[in-house]
Amino acid sequence: TTEMFRRTFDQINANFETMFGKLFRGGAAKLVLVNEEDILECGIEIIARPPGKRLQNISLLSGGERTLTAVALLFAIYMCKPSPFCLLDEMDAALDEANISRFVKILEGFLKLSQFIVITHNRQTIAAAGTLYGVTMPKKGISKIVSMKFRDFEKQAEPAA
Amino acid sequence: TTEMFRRTFDQINANFETMFGKLFRGGAAKLVLVNEEDILECGIEIIARPPGKRLQNISLLSGGERTLTAVALLFAIYMCKPSPFCLLDEMDAALDEANISRFVKILEGFLKLSQFIVITHNRQTIAAAGTLYGVTMPKKGISKIVSMKFRDFEKQAEPAA
Amino acid sequence: MYLKSLEMIGFKSFADRTRLEFETGMTAIVGPNGCGKSNVSDAIRWVIGEQSAKALRGAKMEDCIFNGTEERKPLGMAEVSLTLGDCDGLADMDFHEITVTRRVFRSGEGQYFLNKAPCRLKDIQRLFMDTGIGAASYSLMEQGRIDQVLSSRPEDRRAIFEQAS
Amino acid sequence: MYLKSLEMIGFKSFADRTRLEFETGMTAIVGPNGCGKSNVSDAIRWVIGEQSAKALRGAKMEDCIFNGTEERKPLGMAEVSLTLGDCDGLADMDFHEITVTRRVFRSGEGQYFLNKAPCRLKDIQRLFMDTGIGAASYSLMEQGRIDQVLSSRPEDRRAIFEQAS
Ligand SMILES: Nc1ncnc2c1ncn2[C@@H]1O[C@H](COP(=O)(O)OP(=O)(O)OP(=O)(O)O)[C@@H](O)[C@H]1O
Ligand SMILES: Nc1ncnc2c1ncn2[C@@H]1O[C@H](COP(=O)(O)OP(=O)(O)OP(=O)(O)O)[C@@H](O)[C@H]1O
Ligand SMILES: [Mg+2]
Ligand SMILES: [Mg+2]
Question: Cα–Cα distance between B6 and B23 in angstroms, integer?
């Protein structure tokens, strides 16, 4: 299965480079096996360089850049082995509006392969959804689900004055 | 200094109960010294119960409830010992609009004691600021600071179509 | 295989019987802080076989049972059912549609059902195993977990790659 | 004591000399992902004496020096100056206004100044010690750190209480 892992790894790596380039509109990224002698046990390094910037440790990336890099990796894995459904809880939390727009466009590309359930507070992400469920607590502590339209969300999202 | 720690602890505890009640508009919270025999070394437990809900481990609180509880504790400490300035980086990330509104109102109460520098993507937080600085990268990888007005932010925050 | 519906009763803050129907494409779940959105995610991960109470933010499985409010008493059992369509050829199923049901009682005792027939937890886990869905799957991302993909140590990060191969 | 201004040159993504003036009240710093907002926070924490490169997201202090872009060469030094007003009575200062300056070179060598007079790092750290501001202070909250207040173990959580007493 060293063969099998190698093949999967190379495929995910190629997808990762493509996905990163799309989400960052440029730049470069790749995965590196820490020990080529022991690919079934060794660690996997992530190398990522946003467009125009020089390569540095991924720890120096910003919060939003780190999320986007992780999203590129997840999408790279989905391309390799799509699951029937994906469940993403507030993945867009650290992203600015421009990055959410790119994230959502790419996510839409996966909808023919997989069903997506996303939990979010963000308007753009919600606007892309085909189905919208609102969770509320009319009686404190007891959750209730209401099927919603985007315009209901827009009304609810206005903070109480 | 057991005396001194005890006095500070009790004061922060009282402030924490008050702050939590204000931020959650109800509910209850307190701090507990794990070992009353050894108050200079023992751990400090956080007990928190949002309004209408029953008391449970704080691990079961939602992302936004956890942030708000931590904010209540930080504000409780600021009340006890205000620093000349506070620097908060995206503290509002997990909060919904209604909670951000409460968070900002309480923060405004501290402005006579301390200067606040907040990094944020949120419109309500920004609207409360007296001074607004925008950070941009007209040349990729090189940051530049521009002094801004709220209406400039509103224009910039619109995602590219 | 695709998700058709989820039904919860007594699971965390979902004290009353609650049903969600899923369409193809993207479903967004929204609402204020603390209203129960992540609890829906916990319910899905629990019914497909999540065994770590910690991964569901609790200390023990019993923490998943509705524990009451100021006005409502706690319940004695939590039950979640997930219905999936287009299951032909999955594991050794002959069904086109499968409903997976899981219950837990205050005693800690659990019950598991596949299309209303009692089964074991590992029958449920095995059902999903080859689809890429299971506990800690790269396709089920909890709140706050996305940063761990980058902050985890290189050796720990392997897990999501191994699931995909 | 209050913040009057911050000046950075060669610090992380602030290659060119950059100055921020602070008013009383609330100052908000905004901008897209990756543009440098948290780097401003790092600069403030660094100039007041942060010694852990890890707390500034780097592996060594040299990571704080502007390391170039596709079009600009790296620099050899990073310098940050923080000017504070109303400092009478602070530590053994006789100044009304204090400018704290810190530099680091690629060699790892650091320089420290108080109102342009060379001093040691601990003179700077001591200046802020009684004000509640310093490395890991409860008044300086990095991105993502708010959840650690609750997720830290009870013994680790003490630190912020001890600073306040
Ligand atoms: N066993 C239980 N019984 C009753 N309530 C519970 C139980 N377990 C968790 N809860 C409640 O569920 C709430 C958390 O819900 P959840 O995490 O789904 O919120 P959320 O909608 O995701 O919010 P956020 O936007 O802040 O992430 C908490 O207030 C918690 O007290
Ligand atoms: N020494 C350095 N030289 C040049 N650029 C650097 C250096 N250190 C960090 N950077 C760059 O600074 C950027 C991160 O900036 P920062 O963390 O301030 O972003 P941010 O505005 O807070 O974004 P976010 O909204 O995503 O949190 C990274 O792209 C990183 O490459
Ligand atoms: Mg949640
Ligand atoms: Mg940041």
Answer: 25
